[in-house]
Structure formats: structure tokens, C-alpha cells
Amino acid sequence: MDRRRRFACAPQGAFPDGGGALALAAFARGARGGAEAALVVSALLLVANTIRLAAFARRKEIGIMRLVGASTLYIALPFLLEALVTAVVGVALAAGALVAFEQFVVIERYSGFTVFPLVDWADLAYAVGVVGIAGPVITLVPTLLLTRKYVKV
Predict the structure, then answer these.
(1) DSSP character for 119?
(2) Which long-range contacts (CB under 8 A, 24 or more apart) does 5-13 make?
(3) What whole-number distance in Å separates Cα of residue 55 and Cα of residue 64?
(4) Cα separation of 144 and 50, whole Å?
(5) What is the DSSP letter of 153?
(6) pLDDT per residue as tens digits for the range 48-98
(7) Dihedral, CA atoms, 35, 106, 88, 133, nearest 10 degrees?
């Protein structure tokens, strides 16, 4: 395969041996991993702060529940249900946005684009499945852990 054909979108002579392109791809992979880690940590911190603020806002109700002898599960259940509903709504919004982007941008606008393979419906279904599992897990695990910390019986 001719080099000009392989790097059709690059300026003439930009990647004569491909070494620069490989180094750039390796850097991009490392940067992506760092960005993923930062986003996961920020999501966990956001959930933790939300649980702490919710427990603080409901401290009088929690105190009354403690006085009448409510169990830890009974006190923590509203927090867990609130987190679960929020996660399900977030997953539904993310899945809807992905499906809309696939239909209106990828299929309708770039269907004739042949430089690299586009995302198809199978890839989209996989992404929605990952979001559908990771969203509630990333929301419920900190909720379970922090609810026990802030809602003590």
C-alpha cells in the first residue's frame, strides 16, 4: 500500500516511517486512561458529597427514626432508592443520547465516510450495556458504603 494512500489526511511527508504516528497513538492511549481514571474518581466524589449533603439535610428525620427504633436498613432505604432512581434516569438519558447521535450523525451524515470504520448498532448496543451496568454500580456502591457511615444507628 502506498504511503500517500495510508496517510491520506496527513500532510505530505508528515509520517514517512509511521514512527511519529505510533508515538502519538501511544500518548493518546495514555491520556485516555488518565482521563478515564479522573472521571471515575470525580463521579465517586460527587456521589459521596451528595450522600453527605442528603444525610445532613435529613438529620432531624434520621434522628426521629433512631428514637423510634428504626433499623439501619429502614433508615438507609430512602437514600438507596433515590440513588437507584437517579442512576436509572441517567442511564436512560445517556442511552437516548447515544442512539440519537448514532442515527442522526453517524448514519445520516457520515454513512459514506470510508477513512476508518464507523460505529455500528452492535457497538452501540455494547456501549449502552456497559453504561447500563456501570452507571448503577458507580452510584450504588458509594451510596451503600457512605450511607452506613453517615446514617448510624
Answers:
(1) P
(2) 8/115, 9/115
(3) 13
(4) 13
(5) -
(6) 888 888 888 888 888 888 899 988 888 888 888 988 999 999 999 999 999
(7) -60
